[in-house]
Give the backbone structure.
Amino acid sequence: MKSIESVNDFVIKFANVNGTGSASANSLFAKAIFRMGVPVSPKNIFPSNIQGLPTWYEVRVSDKGYLGRRGGVDIALSVNPQSMADDIREVEPGGYFIYDNTKPLDLRQHRNDISIIGLPLTRICNKEYDDPRQRQLFKNVIYVGALAALLDIDFKVLTGLVEDQFKGKKNLVLPNIHALELGHQYARANVECPIGIRVEHSDMVGDKILLDGNEALGLGALYGGATVAAWYPITPSTSVVDAFEKYAKRVRIDPGTGRRNYAIVQGEDELAAIGMAIGASWNGSRAFTATSGPGVSLMSEFLGLAYFAEIPTVLFNVQRAGPSTGMPTRTQQSDVLACAYASHGDTKQVLLFPSTPKECFDFGAQAFDLAERLQTPIILMSDLDLGMNDNMSEPLSWDDERKYDRGKVMTEEELEAGTEFGRYLDVDGDAICYRTYPGTHPTRGSFFTRGTSRNEYAVYSENGEDYEANMLRLLRKWDTINEHVPAPVTVDCGHETDTAVLYFGTSEESSREALDYLAEEGIFMNAMRVRAFPFNSEVQQFIESHVQVFVIEQNRDAQLRTLLMAEFEFGPDILKSVLCFDGTPISARNIRKQIKKHLNGDNVLPLHRKASLSGVGETL
Amino acid sequence: MSYQLPKFRHPELPVNDLGYTKADYEGAISTLCAGCGHDSISGAIVRACHELSIEPHKIAKLSGIGCSSKTPTYFLGNSHGFNSVHGRMPSVVTGAALANRDLLYMGVSGDGDTASIGMGQFAHVARRNLNMVYIIMNNGCYGLTKGQDSATADRGSASKKGDPNLYSSIDLCGTALQMGATFIGRSFSGDKEQLVPLIKAAMSHRGFALIDVISPCVTFNNNLASTKSYEFVREHSEATGTIDFVPMHKEITTEYEPGSSHEVTLHDGSSIHLYKVDDSFDPFSRRSAMGALEEHRNEGNILTGLIYMNKDSRDLHEVIETSQRPLNELEEVDLCPGNKMLVNINASLR
């Protein structure tokens, strides 16, 4: 047997039981490697459950800086007998299986093509601790200590992290360090350390930070000047408002009165949440709501109102696997069409697609400027993978000279001076009209906001010409929006090629890695990352300048591809699909496999085979 | 279609303390059916606002969908209005009120809009004690879709079509009481003498003020077998008492017989004088109010007047301790912590 040998390049997967405190120990492991200057990408794969079901934590370690899922597992660390059979099966040939051997491994699960390493974690804990909760919690810390020995992780970095984490709580620092040492010493004394896979100090992290997208969004809303947050709890978006509140409590308290310069209301449902956001925006506050797929379905009626009545609205959608309740704790990019055309009648909604926590922060703040400038809903499309996992990201920054763009709002002075006001009167010829806040002027500038048709002065009208003129103006406005939203990012492969890939959001990192794999095999492709809908004209030019473009996305129905075909009238001959929708983030190996299949012509299948082909998104 | 009223006014129309005539509080001409109870309620709102000398632009009027929700077009033409989504007016008002606590929020809804599609939002806006007036124009039927029974139609009551309603009716005052509303009144569109002071008191109350106004639908639900017809309501309503509303800045000139009235001072310094019909009823007790509602229902009567009021009401802004300055007036300097904080946050994430 040839064991895998590598330095700073591997995938480790922890198999735990939900609710046993494993998440914090596992993140301690990931952060230690990050602090050693090696890029990491931890992904929490957790059940929709509070306690008892299997949960996994997969950490990609890559000196090359690949942050997406690679596919495959080099090291499995298993402390959950429930999932052990699957966990051991998943290990790459030559890989390592580390498990709690207090209870010996079932012989039927044994494999000869991998290294199997036993650590008597339960026995160590039972000997060391009397309290059952301590036995459970410290078991996790002990295996992190053992891993440090097995992978040659700098032990001082680990203890430093514990000290930082429990700053000021000495009674927590020492027991945790002790538990780390227990594991470390056991491994050193009983197992050959290090194994073939090692971690070395590196300098590939630079000034980057480890942050989850939801916290970045909460901060974006705070910096973007949001004062009203209305929401309803739903995985995986809940921590967006939690983060907003955490920071608002620190910096939005009026120093004189101690009162709050923000308001957060937990609604009775998502209908109420977006209703409140719309009411507050209508009244001149910056407001937002955060939700996920089922919430978007409920909010659709209100999104139509905000589109039609032109009320700035900011919605953060942290996508999860649908349809219906779907897989609530698994990731997908499957709300693209539901959001792009949210609500009945002719509606089009502006979408922003961030890829990193930094972009969550930037786009999150920018969403408020866009909403007020364009007087329409802005839907920011994050997903569970980006939102709930620590992602390595560029640091956050803010230009202190920056002013909020509050859009076209007529003031009391302008009204007093006799400026003509019609809420839907296109005076500037850019299809964006002036609004007024309630309470501005005693006798001028009031108007009636409604979801029914009206004329330019906001007076109810069932006249077909009034209705049509308004709908056409909305379309004219729509046609200018692609100049305001973030432009796509193109990566030229530096070689003559007629094929390309196009992706958005969290498919970026794995796509980048897959393209490197393909380039090593002599297959060169250009790449474009779309960052918003409506699509910039560059997107059309990019697609037209290639013969074949693979659209990589994490849903079953190729939703972005559908949107591209609808907006630009491309045919299926140009746009090909690379899909993953099993609820895990798309992996680089999966993308490579699907693209190669197409390029080799393997994608032309007889109909009967096509029907029986299981899961194009099969994970490698 | 909405028609604007002619602008010409009699030069000697009485003006209020701010110099506004009643006409300054009117809206477009109603397009509801002639004789609709809702128009009388619009009239009462106009009168209450004029007499209270509220600047028209300091009121925001919001509604859901239905005949009732059309009425904000027909009053307060100088106020911002918002005709939102069916049953969802409470959430829109909640957001608006959070953004600017200095305006007065007048929500108008109907029995379909509140007791069916909007029941959830109604319950929760009451429970949050949002500082607003919530007027229900309650006719027991869906007018705009031609007379289907609503959830407030009494069991056995029949609309013009003739089929008696099979289901239990929802008493919105009782529901609001359960949910934690801090001001609850009921009135009848045909009784302006009762309705106008109730609206004024509701506008001065700090917290969620509900007025359930029985407002007969002349087209679909004003027949003999209906319990929401003009005739039935006139014969079966029983008032808790009468009230007078005295704004803070008005000198109290009316003479009251000692002991006959109960004076209640509101947050803004104005006061309500309450004449109770029956001493056993206490409008400051939830239990008494609930009992009175049940008792009158048992007798087949409709209890009107001020049903409940919590004098120590704390509204949503008080509960969540929002700034006294309206949130929509805050600027970058108040809202944005600047790059320095991000530098520290970045450092903590390495």
About this structure: Chain A touches chain B through 78 residues (CB under 8 Å). Chain A has four domains: 6-198, 211-393, 408-485, 489-612. Confidence is low (pLDDT under 50) at residues 608-620 of chain A. Chain A is about 40% helix and 20% strand.
